[in-house]
Amino acid sequence: MSVDGAQLWTLNQRLLGVVMDACTGELAELGLETKEFFVLTEVEVSPYPAEIATALLLPKASVTVYVRNLVAKGFVRREIDEADLRRHRLVLTAEGTQARDRALAALAAEYDRRLARVTPQDRVELQRILKAMLASPASGRMRE
Prior knowledge:
The chain is mainly alpha-helical. It is 64% helix and 10% strand. The radius of gyration is 18 Å and the shape is globular. It starts with a helix and ends in a 10-residue tail after the last helix.
């Protein structure tokens, strides 16, 4: 039986959309819009707005707006980059870390509700498949 990659991609996108939609109320309670949440979760991994834009496939101008909002809400602050004094890096505040963690917990809980429909063996297999799909072709190691 042939499986169409585009269909699998579409199903995955739908699942992610359904999970995110189910969490919008909890995100709103935290003072976050959906895309602000994604930016917030990326700050520790990619502390520069241009890196966040690249990682999240968002326009730089949009990331700038989301960062301004997150700064105004007290979730993120800008600091001079000691390695390059011309650049500012983003840092999560304690409030930002708390909001991120609570939002991730809500997301995980909703995803777990969906996973409850899948057998434990299939969950292990799903994890293996996703890791294989994320692995670098040359090294076989997972991309971060």
